[in-house]
Amino acid sequence: MSGRDILFLDQPFRALWAGQDAFAAARALQGDVLRELEGRRTLRTEIDGRGYYVKLHRGIGWRRIFENLAVARRPVLGAGHEWRAIRRLRELGVDTMQAVAFGQRGANPARQESFIITEELAPTISLEDYCRDWAAQAPPPALKRALIARVADMTGRMHRGGMNHRDCYLCHFLLHTEPAPAPAALRVSLIDLHRAQVRPTPAPRRWRDKDLAALYFSSLEIGLTRRDRLRFLRAYFERPLRAILADEVALLTWLENEGRRLMRRYQRKFAPRGAS
């Protein structure tokens, strides 16, 4: 492999693919295909009874790269985005996936070949599903407060540590369900990092605010109170509420407006046909 190429193999793939071309072996993996897009394929496979998620990238071509750049969007060129994001979150003390294999080869960004394999996080449930019925059936207050504090802490660590998610919705926070969640024993993992951005300085305000707006939007219908949202802000900013409410007026106003805008767009897109 050239100096630009990267290959990392942990068990079981280090032993399973010994003496093989790891890229060919990754392409040959079989399982349930979860997503198939131009240049990217995602599947779930099992080895010795254990689940793994495999993401294969084949390069998106110069045309797609230029299309992204033309609208000021950073193109996702391969599995390297997710590999770097996983490593950064672990450095920051944020629970996330465990990568057991990663490969990247090719100097041409439009034709770069890469893959990443992560261990399945199970048993888990997304916070979108776990919190879905909260508006009708409130959870134990201590558990709700603990979950709010955990998500706020994870998001704050991520942003202060130079990373933004770009799809920071509740569905991408997985609550581990064994042992049963309790206020004093919670484990939540952040997933779906293929579009994440990583840098050595804190996340720029623009990208930070987009993540916060996505979180606000995805929590609009789970019955959170104003006090719940204030708890989130205090844990996220790690500052007294009085200072936050005085210094972040513009952000809080924008979040409310942007959250409602996202909700209207969501309802237009997914409203049942024939609904008025």
Q: What are the secondary-structure elements, in order, as H or E?
A: EHHEEEHHEEEHHEEEEHHHH
Instruction: Kindly report the average pLDDT value.
Output: 89
Distance between the termini: 59 Å
The global form is globular
Structural class determined from secondary elements? alpha+beta
Structurally, the number of domains stands at 2
Number of helices: 10
CATH architecture of the largest domain: Orthogonal Bundle
Number of strands: 11
- CATH-level-4 superfamily name of the largest domain: Transferase(Phosphotransferase) domain 1
The share of residues in helices is: 40-55%
Major sheet strand order: 1-5-6-4-3-2
Please describe the topology of this protein.
Elements: E1 6-9, H1 13-16, H2 22-27, E2 32-37, E3 40-47, E4 50-57, H3 61-70, H4 80-92, E5 99-105, E6 113-119, E7 124-126, H5 127-130, H6 141-160, E8 163-164, E9 173-176, E10 188-190, E11 197-198, H7 205-218, H8 226-237, H9 241-247, H10 249-270
Antiparallel strand pairs: 1-5, 2-3, 3-4, 4-6, 5-6, 7-9, 8-11, 9-10
Textual characterization of the structure:
This protein has 276 residues and is of the alpha+beta class. The chain has two domains: 6-119, 2-Layer Sandwich (Phosphorylase Kinase, domain 1), CATH 3.30.200; 124-270, Orthogonal Bundle (Transferase(Phosphotransferase), domain 1), CATH 1.10.510.10. It has ten helices and eleven strands. The chain has a six-stranded antiparallel β-sheet with strand order 1-5-6-4-3-2. A three-stranded antiparallel β-sheet has the order 7-9-10. β3 (40-47) and β4 form a beta hairpin. α6 packs parallel to α8 (226-237) and α7 (205-218) packs across α10 (249-270). The longest helix has 22 residues, at 249-270. It starts with 5 loop residues before the first strand and ends in a 6-residue tail after the last helix.
